[in-house]
Design a protein that fits this description.
The protein is an alpha/beta fold. It is built from six helices and five strands; from the N terminus they run βααβαβαβαβα.
């Protein structure tokens, strides 16, 4: 089952959590992977969602998600970036963005674009694809 990746820089975590809360019903059957702290925050706010957490972004989480993109295991990335704060792991963030571009994965860097991606019907198409492949949905 391919996953939706959710990531947020510290200054944007509250915004991403609110965004996901508003779409929790839509995402109820989706496989979701998050970087560490972001995943913990989303788990607290949306306990019914099934979240897999990888390492925190600066500790390699961005690279772990990038590897999954290269393996064909991610169908979209929502990454609420903070463009005004320098990040020590900026090269990892840029590598993740490059991989999304190379592998033609939808990449939303803000709430407006994330809404367009999720509200486009992409979630439903991915879930239908999983059902057709016999992968089922999360329960």
């Amino acid at each position: 089952m391919r996953q939706l990746a959710l990531i947020a820089h510290d200054a944007r975590k509250d915004e991403l959590v609110a965004f996901v809360e508003a779409r929790a019903r839509m995402l109820a059957d989706a496989a979701i992977v998050c970087t560490g702290t972001t995943g913990g925050r989303i788990e607290q706010a949306c306990p019914d969602l099934r979240i897999e957490r990888v390492k925190s972004g600066p500790l390699g989480g961005d690279q772990q998600i990038g590897a999954r993109i290269a393996e064909g295991r991610i169908w979209a990335v929502i990454f609420f970036v903070d463009p005004l704060t320098p990040m020590p792991h900026d090269v990892d963030v840029k590598a993740l963005m490059r991989l999304a571009s190379v592998y033609d994965i939808p990449l939303a860097l803000n709430a407006s674009t994330a809404a367009l991606v999720l509200d486009s019907g992409l979630v439903e198409r991915e879930l239908a694809r999983d059902r057709e492949a016999g992968e089922g949905v999360l329960s």
